Amino acid sequence: MNIAVNAASIPAGASNSRDWRRYRFRAEREQSKEMAKAKTLFYCSECGAETGKWQGQCPGCGQWNTLVEAPSAVSSSGKRKAAAHNATAAEPARMRDIAIGDERRLLTGIAELDRVLGGGIVAGSLVLVGGDPGIGKSTLLLQMCKQLSDKGEKVLYVSGEESLKQIKLRGERIGEFSDSIYLLSETGISLIDTAIGRLQPKIVIVDSIQTMYEESVDAAPGSMSQVREITGILLRIAKSRGISIFIVGHVTKEGNVAGPRMLEHMVDTVLYFEGDASAAYRILRGVKNRFGSTNEIGVFEMKGKGLVEVPNPSEYMIQGKPVGESGSVVACAIEGSRSFMIEVQALVCHTYFNMPRRTAAGTDYNRVNLLIAVLEKRLGLRMSDSDAYVNVAGGMRITEPALDLAIIAALISSQSGKVMDEHTVLFGEVGLVGEVRAVPQCEKRVAEAVKTGYRTCILPLANKLAIEKSGNLDLSGICLVGIRNIREIVDRKEWS
Prior knowledge:
single chain, 496 residues, alpha/beta, Rossmann fold, Ribosomal Protein S5, domain 2, 3 domains, nine-stranded mixed beta sheet, 14 helices, 21 strands, globular
């Protein structure tokens, strides 16, 4: 290490080589300390684990190539350690001594949003809303602010991407707002914290988390260190003051929120907007919810004045379904506590290449390949010389195993040219032996089929026996067909 020592700092008596080496060693040590303070750490983008050097595999979660370099932010951590040392120690409390009181959820005025949140907004909760650009995240939150402000609730909308005039122009498209909604265009978290403390709102919207920054963290806004720090500050604000905070997060091309996955672990609720920005319909999915069920969905339609709720998803999921065409069947899926009908489409055609093509849209690609292998092995259907395309119409993504039987039927229909009766619905899990296994919540699926007007339901035999034994459903308008194996579906009378 080449260190330039200031000659003026050397005492007059240090003229020999021994004294010179001693002072040179001290200078090197001081410089090493300064370099240690400015070192960087490596954070895992999946679990948030940190390490002092780069590794191919994360030591925390075991994922490969997920470590990202970021400043260590020694200054901010030192401040937090000093504050924690000087703070008064918290005393543990017995659970039975904690008074809950009358903690009621705050209804947003948007039924589909309340459904996904688990019945409304919980006081002091931190909610993350993610989605592609232009999908409708800001529009939905602005509509929520309007509904809450109309009830007299004080709401603060913080934007780091738009000016106050731009937010108002976007809000005028939705409608007229009351005097209880406040706007703030700011990116500094300390100034936002001050504004929240002065205003004392009940709901705070932060749009977006990637534009906010903390001055004590030596990193650019949107970096891993900044996102972690900002989320931690907002979490403390929400829990200590009982304020519900919604933060907007941009997503990567893989569909994940930009930044570390620890962001999802820190918040109470994670909501994702799904769908094509150019399409009319949007799906709001609850990926994580500490105060309600997960995988709950809300369906919206984008119109000129904002997002409009779709109370009956089955109606729009199967609208436009072709009649008398092969490769199209109807299945009953469940997301969260909601059941609805979906159209499963398949196209099997001869390939002119050595490697047949397999494509899955709206469902699991590997699951489709597995079912094609089951068809070829158990039913003797030659699929090795054909391309196969499977699509879940309507923009939904369904990955539950109950969709297996519908995918099997759609593939058989497309290859053979047979048409499934338009008043027939299917659901069931298919195993590697070709058996049709029972699926959960079968009564809810059959009830949805009856409500939608279907006359025949092909389902696993175990589910059929369970429904008939319980006697909870009126089956006068529908015929239940229980099957044990996929071979039984080939010669059904529902084919034409």
